[in-house]
Amino acid sequence: MRAWMSVDVPALPGAGRGRVWVHDTVSGRLQPAGPEAGEARLYACGITPYDATHLGHAATYVAVDLLHRAWLDAGLGVRYAQNVTDVDDPLLERAEATGVDWAALAEDQIELYRTDMAALRVLPPVRLDGVVENIDRVTDLIGVLRDRQAVYQVPDPVYPDWYFSVTKASNLLEGTGISMLEAEHVFAERGGDPERPGKRHRLDCLVWRQARPGEPAWDSWLGRGRPGWHIECTAISLAELGEDFDVQAGGRDLAFPHHPMCAAEASVATGQPMAKVFLHTGMVALHGEKMSKSLGNLVFVSRLRAEGVDPMAIRLVLLAHHYRSDWEYTDAALADAQARLDRWRAAVARPSGPDAGVVLEAVRTALRSDLDAPAALTAIDVWAGADGDDASAPAVVRDLADALLGIAL
Predict the structure, then answer these.
(1) What secondary structure does DSSP assign to 226-246, as a single string?
(2) CA angle 137-281-297, nearest 5°?
(3) Domains within the chain, CATH numbers bracketed
(4) How far is CA 226 from CA 206, 212, 392, in A?
(5) What integer is the mean pLDDT of 217-233?
(6) In degrees, to the nearest 5, what angle opens at C-alpha 65 toward C-alphas 358 and 306?
(7) Which of 16-20, 29-33, 295-299, 336-340 has the lowest mean pLDDT?
(8) pTM for this one?
């Protein structure tokens, strides 16, 4: 599956120095992300394409983009993979509710997502990996888990679905901060089925769902059916990036059960950790409630763009908040972002400005210190509000805003 068109990233003076540190959810500490030299490997969990792209999605992928850009500036190559869950219960339910073919709904929303990401100047993955085109990778991985006695079928005479046995992994709840009882509750809220008869453990997760009437299904050695949610990301990430890659990223709602389930499956299959660092972004609210598809309180990037909002102002709204923080979207926040964009564009249009070396170092330091975008924005604000006689500075600041923050001035 194709991704979206990339953009050129300007080369900045003094690039190639310094490592990027981010907060690892599992350890609860800042950790260096990526190698000191060579290629950094990044996996970001993608959308389920039935309601794209709201600001919660955009906030996550812009945060991932900051990491991507900081790595490039540090002189690293980047191998970035992202999935699209283009067959799953929520998509099928939306298709049935709206009377739209599920595959057509997915393709429409995936194209909208591509368009939004391109407008926001998010650097693309090598390609998007849809579940439908990766069925063989999924069934092959389940075969490896079967060989390790880590999957089983429930004794259901009608739908003998396949499950991953979480007791084969020793650290499922490591770093989650939740008890087993809480885990069961969250598991049920986020697509799990702890009450399913025949399961060996209440947290065992579905890896292959046998075909139900009216649902899409594929033939395999497991029986005709389709993949479960967690196993798709495990299979795609391992196939695209290999074992023990550098960063697994996604929204904080994936911190359990999705990412621990993926990591458990990967560790059982390979004997290695799935990723060195797990990066999770905060939640975006509207009118006091977290944006969610169930509540319908969503602000869509495409809708803002259709209303004439500059995509760079939308990106600045997102960058004004640290990626790990929860925050609330307001019209005032968008107005502030547009005003900031106007100030920056006016500043880089001047014939001269203050020394650009200071602001360049400040932005680099901010991003390499847990992707602190608000501090980076403040550094450019200070530069834009001051006078100076460096004729080269406006062009350098224009390039650094583009290269490091993804803001085209």
Answers:
(1) EE-HHHHHHHHHHHHH-SSEE
(2) 100
(3) 33-281 (3.40.50.620)
(4) 10, 10, 57
(5) 98
(6) 105
(7) 295-299
(8) 0.96
